[in-house]
Amino acid sequence: MTKSHRTLLIKRPLRIFTTEERGALVRVLNRADALGNLWARGFEIWSIDIDSRFAYEFDYFKNELRLINAKKWLAKVHAIFNVGVRLTNERDMGQGVFIDLTENILRLRWVIKRRAIIISLTPSEVGYIRDRLNESGKPKLARAWVDDGHLYIAITFEREVEPIKPSNYRLVIDVNSWRHGIAWALVDGKISSMGRERPNLGYIETLYNHVTMLEHKYGTLRRLGFHKTPYGRKLWREIKATRCRLYAYLRDYTQKLVHKLAQKALKYGAMVIIDDVLEESRRELMEEKLPNGLAKAYMLYLRRFIYLLTNQLAWYGVPYEFKRLPSTKCPVCGNELTQLPGRVMQCPKCGLKANRDEIPIKWALLHQRIGSRQP
Ligand SMILES: [Zn+2]
């Protein structure tokens, strides 16, 4: 049995809160961040200006924090709360974060004395929490912080996992780039099904070009000192909103794809082989001369894809491994392949001809056959 974790991130603009709540959130959570920082560097901490439970929770959740932060792609110590959940009629024990699913709200405590800040949960947040609870996940701890005008609450669920016994199926995932798509194949001695997943690149590029155009305009205003005018402010808001839409789209796409692939592996009891070619992808992106900002966003969400995928596989106890599968070497005779137009690869020695995406999958099949012969 191992423990695995999944985290729900709740994000709300600070402007939805009352002035008192907003002020307390900024002051207390920033203060807790500073304390957490000191705590992480080995200092003994106590607080006189904020609730003493903040200092207490750092020590209490010491081991969990290490566990979560070890795999976390953005590790930072924030205010920590214990968590309680009410599904039907469970008692509210005054936990720092109390999720009440009879009303679909979250109570955030300790920030304001003697009362909770109430946050309404969206249907998708409620769905996420219910799904984790149904999978016998338990809310372990919550962290909260304030950044860039938003309140963030991250709720981590923990689950005891019995690793599944893999069947003969393998799910091979070739993480190439968003541009060429993420290729996957379900193999069982032969290719049983395969696909290539790609976000709507046209939509992404339209948004990106729009942002670039607006930024250019805004830059001109700025040089002239007109960026604080109503027109300048409106422009700035549009830049931020469009950028948000772009990232939200990529985030949503990534999440849906991870869900689909993790469920597929689970359904077939397939061991997952991830061909992670991020470095190669980075080079490809540069060669395509994509605008730097867009290349960065693509890379960010490729990394995010791998992080989320391995996180979900671990949650369900699906075994996975990273394996470099060659895409330029002939899987029949081992000769170097030459690339023809349209991402077609050809072997000058044995004449094999296949799409570039299929080469790593053919190698995976080969590994599986060799592997199954071994005792
Ligand atoms: Zn060959």
Largest sheet: 5 strands, mixed
**Order of helices and strands, N to C?**
EHHHEEEEEHEEEEEHHEHHEEEEH
* DSSP strand tally: 16
Oligomer: single chain
Terminal-residue CA separation = 26 Å
Q: How many helices in DSSP terms?
A: 9
Which term fits the overall shape?
globular
Question: What descriptors fit this protein?
Answer:
five-stranded mixed β-sheet, 375 residues, four-stranded antiparallel β-sheet, globular, single chain, 45% helix, 16 strands, 9 helices, binds zinc ion, Nucleotidyltransferase, domain 5, alpha+beta
How does this model look, in words?
The chain has 375 residues and is α+β, with helices and mostly antiparallel strands. It folds into two domains: 160 residues, no CATH class; 119 residues, Nucleotidyltransferase, domain 5 (2-Layer Sandwich). Helix content is 45%, strand content 26%. α5 runs antiparallel to α6. The mean pLDDT is 88. The site of zinc ion has 8 residues, from loops.
Quickly describe the structure.
The chain is an alpha+beta fold and 375 residues long.
Set down the secondary structure blueprint.
Layout: E1 2-13, H1 19-40, H2 52-60, H3 62-71, E2 79-81, E3 83-86, E4 97-100, E5 105-112, E6 115-120, H4 123-134, E7 138-147, E8 150-161, E9 170-177, E10 181-187, E11 191-197, H5 201-224, H6 230-268, E12 271-276, H7 278-287, H8 292-316, E13 320-322, E14 338-340, E15 344-346, E16 353-355, H9 358-373
Parallel strand pairs: 3-4, 9-12, 12-13
Antiparallel strand pairs: 1-8, 2-7, 4-5, 5-6, 7-8, 9-10, 10-11, 14-15, 15-16
Helix pairs in contact: 5-6, 6-8, 7-8
Bound molecules: zinc ion.
Zinc ion binds next to loops.
